[in-house]
Amino acid sequence: MRLHRLLMPAAALLALTGCHSAIVEATISNRTAAPIPLIEVDYPSASFGTENLAPGKDFHYRFKILGDGPTKVVYTDQSQHEQHNDGPTLREGDEGHITVLFAQDGIHWQWAPKKR
């Protein structure tokens, strides 16, 4: 019973403060005139992707960074050739929003980290 009295306030405090996990919100946007058959975004320790992203459409994904390292997008162009484009370096604990924008004039990365 005594242990129960000690644990209840600790559990309540934990519930009130909550746990915060550093998450990166990612968006892949296709602003070209053609669908993109295959897209993969590599980031430290993992990757994500989508298939057949239509013109004017977005793909959203959330991830947690484990380790430090570069980002890269690997995609298949309309000629069925694999292409690569390097992005920003991310570090474990980073959080914010990253966008990979496929535009008529090329690929543009936007990294908007949250302040720690």
Quick structural gist:
This protein is mostly beta strands and 116 residues long. It has one helix and eight strands.
How many strands? 8
Please give the CATH class: Mainly Beta
Work out the count of structural domains. 1
Overall geometry: elongated
Tell me about the largest β-sheet. Answer: 4 strands, mixed
Q: Which structural category fits the helices and strands?
A: mainly beta
What value does the Rg take, in angstroms? 19 Å
Low-pLDDT parts are none
Mean pLDDT value? 89
Strand order in the sheet with the most strands: 4-1-7-8
The CATH topology, please? Answer: Immunoglobulin-like
**What's the CATH architecture name?**
Sandwich
Strand content: over 45%
Regarding quaternary structure, how should these chains be classified? single chain
Name the CATH homologous superfamily: Domain of unknown function DUF5300
Structure, described:
The chain has 116 residues and is mainly beta. The chain has one domain (23-113): Immunoglobulin-like. 14% of the residues lie in helices and 54% in strands. The chain has one helix and eight strands. The protein has one helix spanning 2-17; strands at 24-31, 36-43, 46-53, 58-63, 69-76, 82-90, 96-103, 106-113. The longest helix is centred in the N-terminal third of the chain and has 16 residues, at 2-17.
